[in-house]
Amino acid sequence: MEIQNLYNQWLMNATEDADLQTELQEISGKEDDIFDRFYRELEFGTAGLRGVIGAGTNRMNIYTVRKATQGLAEYIKEAGGTSAAIAYDSRIKSDLFAKEAARVLAANGITVYIYKELMPTPMLSYAVRELHCTAGIVVTASHNPAKYNGYKAYGSDGCQLSVENSAKVLEYVDKVAMFGGAKLTDFDTALANGQIQYIGQDLIDRYLNAVAAQAIEPVTTDLKVIYTPLNGTGNKPVRKILEKIGVKNVTVVPEQEHPDGNFPTAPYPNPEIRQAFECALKMAEQSTADLLLDTDPDADRVGIAVYNGDGYTLMSGNEVGALLLNYILSRRSANGTLPQNPVAVKTIVSTQLATKIAEKYGCQIIDVLTGFKYIGEQVALLEAKGEENRFVFGFEESYGYNASSFVRDKDAVIASMLICEMAAYYKSVGKSLLEVLADLYKEHGIFCCSQTGFTFEGATGMEIMKNIMVTLRNTPPKAINGDAVTAVLDFGVSVETNMITGEQTPILLPKSDVLYYRLGNAGDNVIVRPSGTEPKIKIYITAIEATEEKAKAKADGWLKELSAQFK
After folding, report:
1. Is 156 a catalytic residue?
2. Which of 12, 125, 527, 533 maximizes the CB count within 10 A of its CB?
């Protein structure tokens, strides 16, 4: 009855967007469809909001965006702030949601700086810091399918909001009525009186110049690149930065060049999967390129495929992260620009090959929880000590990289620049990225990293996910495919348990719903965690062996046994 009442309220009040009224009328009498839209509210969490576009409390629409933004406005005012920045990507209704957020903030007396056109997520992080804003918003659902949109909130440090600050915003959001609870002003009126201001080209140019200044080696060889922005925000800034550093032989995939939130040629615009490269691979059949490059719709992540002499090898986020760290440390060491006591940061689910590479160059490696905000926080801690120049690189296995301190999120613009520069440098000395990676494995051992995810849609799926994690937490495995589990790290309670001695030690990281199993060989591990942005449980595996065959066989065995528990 409560859900039916909510449905009736929306039918009566959600009249400002004709699409919502059409949808509500179409689901009349369909209990399952109504339930899925109203059984919960989209929760404002550490990743902001993310959900399917449509009508209801469990959907992304102008009313859920207004409600969230009113809560954020109260948080800004409590902090004594007076301004916020907004960016948006190419997704369906992104521009509308961005303007709605601007209307709410302006109505609360907060000056809004908004980009005139779609811009990458890292350029929002940059704008927040450059314009001395208290907060920022970027409207995006990153790499999710076209039916999704989302809303990420940032603090004054240019990082996504911390767990604590997200909780504060949520407290305010929960007090806002869905209809009429958010303050509103007219967008054009606020623009005319300066309460809303467009971000000018000068700030965009400053960002691109700052990125270009991070280049390490001059590009002296012709590198042929096929690039796809996947109908997202990367098209202009990525092409401009590549031209700035001298990578001029860049061909853009025509059917994926211009913004299109329907993503007609890549319905799941995720750089991690082969489908995102299909159009680029077809182009490469006609004209061979050294490198295929793709950025996701909000251009915070980047994927690559490398020519192997017979076709193209898609490289994982772990592989590219390790290559970039090695390139940055080795070349900056060689040219005398590596700072004393350099620092690199990676997430706990990312390859430990990075640790070996960092040790070689005397670089401190810091492991943090999954989420680039935790990498940004480490940069902020260095900045507080006046040591931000020590930060040389941060990455996560899900294709997110950054090598600057002026952006506090993953940045596909600077990553695209460094990847192309790196490929050009190694080409100039007669090596491909695949050969360089093989050298790293020969030096440090084979690190076989694999990942899979299990999707659980809807209300029932959420409950199944919770039950799986509870079962694993209460009855941890003693062995996985015959390999003994030597330690269990439960980040939910911040305790590491030695499975041999029973000894328990505290984990000095924030609490998170993550289970981390150490196995036989030093460095072998299996990690299980629910996704923060999708209805998925993810499994990450690292198997270390002397040969690729042994490492892959071990990883496949673990994955097969674990997968059986999720089906």
Report:
1. no
2. 125
